Amino acid sequence: MTLKEAKKKAIQAYSAEQITVLEGLEPVRKRPGMYIGNTAKEGLHHLVWEVIDNSIDEAMAGFCNRIEITLLSDGMVSVTDNGRGIPVDIHKGTKTSALEVVLTKLHAGGKFGQGGYKVSGGLHGVGVSVVNALAEYLRAEVRREGKLWAQEYKRGQPLKKVRAVGKATGTGTTITFKPDKEVFTTLEFDLATIYDHIRQQAYLTKGVTITINDERAEDKSAYTFYFEGGIASYVRHLNRWHETKHGNVFYTEKEFEGINVEVALQYIDDYKETLYTFANNIFTTEGGSHLVGFRAALTRTLNNYAREKGYLKEKDDNLQGEDTREGLTAIVSVKVKEPQFEGQTKAKLGNDEVRPAVDAVFSEAFAAWLEEHPRDAEAMLGKCLLAAQARKAARAARDTVLRKGALDGFALPGKLADCSAKDPKDSELYIVEGDSAGGSAKQGRDRRFQAILPLRGKILNVERARIDKMLANNEVKSLVIALGTNIGEMFNIEDLRYDRIIIMTDADVDGAHIRTLLLTLFFRYFPDIITQGHLYIAQPPLYRVEKGREVNYVYSDAELEQLKKKFQVSSFQPKAGQPLADRFQEAANQAEGDETVVTEAHGRVNIQRYKGLGEMNPQQLWETTMDPVRRMMKQVMVEDAEKANEVFDILMGAEVAPRKKFIQTHAKDVKNLDI
Prior knowledge:
Elements: H1 3-13, H2 26-30, H3 33-36, H4 41-60, E1 66-71, E2 77-81, E3 90-91, E4 96-97, H5 98-104, H6 127-133, E5 135-144, E6 147-154, E7 157-158, E8 163-167, E9 172-179, H7 191-204, E10 209-214, E11 221-225, H8 231-238, E12 250-256, E13 259-267, E14 274-279, E15 282-283, H9 289-308, H10 321-325, E16 328-335, H11 354-372, H12 374-401, H13 404-407, E17 428-433, H14 435-444, E18 450-455, H15 467-470, H16 474-483, E19 500-504, H17 509-525, H18 527-531, E20 535-538, E21 543-547, E22 550-554, H19 557-566, H20 580-592, E23 597-600, E24 603-609, H21 618-626, E25 633-635, H22 641-652, H23 656-666
Parallel strand pairs: 1-10, 14-16, 17-18, 17-19, 19-20
Antiparallel strand pairs: 1-2, 2-9, 3-4, 5-6, 5-9, 6-7, 6-8, 10-11, 12-13, 13-16, 14-15, 20-25, 21-22, 21-24, 23-24
């Protein structure tokens, strides 16, 4: 059969019979990732968020002030609220109970303009029906009209009709479900993840009590969140490890042309900005119109006050936006009747009418607050004016370091061994600890697409430094030039010279510290490199195990234990609590007096523990850590920006007390301390 004949036959075979129509909740089970992101840990917890969102919507509508979440011992989750209860009467369009419609129909609910909700986070109306589709079992209970109504489902299919099963006092809804093991790769709910999410929702919905019960273990636990201060309490929580510049937290809440605007802020003695925006309690990670309105009003209001009070003279430059955001911790939350989000992920708010609403509400309230709190205002302006001076110094330093020629590749760092590939998509940069490892990497690499930048010693801790001081550090300066993206307000991810940035450090304490310093630099000044998936951490082997002509590179202690069993290395008894590397060291000394040899019944096994990259020759480094076919790398990702921000604050900030507490709290969780 010729190619032409084959194509003709294929065209004829593709008919209406090949078109599949998925009914009801079938699309959800067929493509769950389209609705909950994935079927791993994040997607599993997303089911809980969808059910809780319904209760939060009732709270925002003013009908609910108590929500209870229970993790049950059989892998089930129960969410109960004291809202109005999902309607159970017959829906005219479908001739079935409204409860069944909500649980079985996509894009069905009280959030599409029929007066059920004034504002809602569940705009797309697929929440609880998606949970039903992806649940092995779900039971809905509704307390309305003095009766308890119930209905059960199996994988989205109702087992019976909605019916009254008893009497009930008050109103509300309980959804109990068990995630389907056929769908999810994990069924284990993480209590810390749930705490973090619920804490945030409690801050954003002031006056609502949310309780989390964990009944999975013998030691049952319960934790309750309640914040009368709302997002003002949220700001205090974010700043709890920092020295604040002023004691009073600014807070305002007001409705403007049908849009509820809520803003809280406080300045701290730091260089970074911490700003979270929300629309209908949904975290808008990419900001949007509410963020634009807030930033414009903040800069304008502070400039007006500073000029009026004589802090700025006519000949002086106005404060720039970056000056007013240095050390700022702020929360901006809006409630909109018909929010327009960009995509199902709801990462960015697009409503144009929100920008002037936030601008008007915030600027009026903030101007009055500055007049009423002169000491706080003075502290704020002092911080902003100092930031302006630093900005000018940083710009001078950046202009000196990052000349146009440098970014065009004419003045790249001398220590950079660049690759020959010109397309960034085909290139990767290894940031290597030390000149010794850098030399091995340069010799072992594939010059066509792998560039090597060795760093000497530990770079500056950028958590405690401004850009001008950063660019005075030769190691940081070399890295910034090599990346090609510029830094600060001139940063442009499109100019990144390499598709993959790979941190490669020694497997010891110093190497871990250098890696942490580099991660701090990227997280604070190059976050887009992380969020767009360009940053990786190389995984060099910990051991080289040789028996005869067979050579194995081992990347973990667990893997070494397996190899020990394979080679029947059993001539010694490990001591309890003794690091595995030390056990082999001791056994080797006992057997032969040789630091790297363990003797066993059938021959000799040579075990080498790599403490540094420089201990490997170029060929070994290529085979184990740099060869794209065989290497192992970890991609750096940020699942929770607020949590990541807090950890960097604690570990790399100036305050000692929170760092000491963090170390004491997590000391027992540390593994491989000798690595």
